[in-house]
Design goal:
The protein is 19% helix and 45% strand. It is of the alpha+beta class and 347 residues long. Strand 5 and strand 6 form a beta hairpin.
């Protein structure tokens, strides 16, 4: 300002030296000089050194623009609504000002079963999630890692991890117990007690990722209902290999013997045993046989394999040990029997 005032005073002094004819020329010249002086002062004051930091790259520029918007337009730098700019477009700048611009990049986010595209100027995955208001649970995972730098086309997977306590009930099979009973024939099988299944409660820690079960771990197992065993009574007393009257008969033991035959030498109904009883051949009942009474006592009821039911009621000088002599009515029948080794069932 002092410069301008001095300039005007000098102009007035000069004006006195000249006549009116030259006064117009002088005024024009002085006006031009004044305009040039003002322009010089304006450009001197408007000149600014500004630091531009665009996507992390710094550049120092000289500009005469007054706002952030004008500086960026002058440099041909576009700014979208998703970009991060400091200070704002409308902010005025001064010498040594810094303008920071971070352009947004397209990021794909897979979250809660949806794929969305976001445009973000954030530096890394963690700041992106914070800026977008995406809250992670304590067990949730994110891929790639949170410190990964954002880049155009980056895909971020947010995995929701959830733990649930799940209870299940399982059926427990009952056991079938067989109880042998020697007093019952071996064809006897009877259910004395029906079996009933039990129940077991199992508590699991189940891990879900994005709603799908990934794993489960057993926390506890408790039998809430014990199974009832099935009890089956089984007879073990042996039965005859044949039946009589449609019903199988039981026996005490079975022995292997040598068997010969004799016949009614004195006629049918007239032949007697050593015990004085009449020898009988009765295919429908009990026939007479000779035994060693030390092995098979008199009066014992028997079943002779291939012969039929009999009663020990006779003996002979040659009948010793495991040897029996079966009785027939005729000589021919006795010859047909000849000598055999048979099983004898003691009834």
């Amino acid at each position: 300002m002092r410069f301008i005032q001095g300039f005007i005073l000098r102009s007035l002094q000069i004006d006195k030296l000249f006549n009116n004819k030259n006064k117009t020329k002088i005024i024009i010249s002085l006006s031009l000089l004044l305009l040039i002086a003002v322009l010089i002062i304006y450009f001197f004051l408007a000149r600014k050194s500004v630091y531009l930091i665009i996507d992390g790259k710094q550049e120092n520029i000289i500009t005469y623009k007054s706002s952030v918007k004008k500086v960026l337009l002058n440099k041909g730098i576009e700014v979208s609504s998703h970009d991060k700019l400091e200070p704002s477009l409308d902010s005025r700048i001064s010498d040594k000002s810094t303008i920071t611009l971070k352009h947004a990049v397209a990021v794909k986010v897979l979250i809660d079963g949806e794929e969305i595209t976001k445009y973000s100027p954030e530096d890394n995955v963690e700041s992106f999630l914070t800026a977008e208001g995406i809250v992670l649970g304590s067990q949730d995972r994110v891929n790639p890692e949170k410190n990964t730098e954002l880049s155009d086309g980056l895909q971020i997977d947010v995995v929701r991890v959830e733990h649930k306590t799940v209870s299940t009930t399982q059926s427990l099979d009952f056991i079938t117990t067989r109880k042998n009973d020697i007093s019952l024939p071996n064809t006897y099988v009877q259910t004395k007690q029906e079996g009933k299944p039990g129940e077991k409660e199992t508590i699991f820690d189940v891990v879900y990722e994005n709603g799908k079960e990934i794993s489960r771990k057993i926390l506890s197992e408790t039998v809430t209902k014990k199974p009832t065993d099935k009890i089956v009574v089984v007879g073990t007393f042996p039965l005859m290999p044949i039946s009589r009257g449609g019903q199988q008969l039981d026996y005490k033991k079975v022995i292997k013997v040598k068997s010969t035959a004799y016949y009614a030498v004195n006629g049918i109904g007239k032949t007697y045993t050593s015990t004085g009883a009449r020898a009988i051949r009765n295919p429908e009942g009990y026939s007479t046989i000779a035994v060693d009474p030390k092995v098979i006592p008199y009066g014992t009821k028997l079943f002779v394999e291939g012969y039929g039911f009999a009663i020990a009621a006779d003996t002979g000088l040659a009948i010793r040990g495991n040897w029996i002599d079966v009785f027939f009515n005729t000589y021919r029948e006795a010859c047909n029997w000849s000598v055999k080794y048979v099983k004898v069932y003691i009834l």
